[in-house]
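Key result, reporting period 2: structure in, sequence out.
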């Protein structure tokens, strides 16, 4: 007789039931990637990249606006004074 009891197999849905929610919304696929494959979830990674690009574009727009605002004001004052 084998000295150990055979472990009960659980489904992925049961496994992730108590895990915290994830950004991508698909707990099963997310934890499959992270815990079993040892890699980042591709959906979460794509969402992070999209947010990073939006942040970078917003910062770039602020920098451009900060540099162009004095030039625009200067050109407007030149047009107003003959």
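The corresponding designed sequence is given below.
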């Amino acid at each position: 007789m084998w000295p150990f009891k055979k472990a009960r197999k659980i489904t992925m849905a049961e496994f992730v039931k108590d895990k915290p929610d994830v950004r991508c919304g698909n707990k099963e696929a997310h934890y499959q990637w992270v815990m079993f494959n040892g890699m980042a979830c591709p959906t979460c990674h794509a969402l992070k990249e999209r947010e990073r690009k939006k942040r970078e574009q917003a910062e770039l727009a602020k920098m451009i606006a900060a540099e162009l605002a004095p030039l625009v004001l200067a050109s407007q004052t030149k047009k107003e004074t003959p």
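The chain has a mean pLDDT of 89. The chain has one domain: 23-80. This case is discussed further under Risks and Mitigation.
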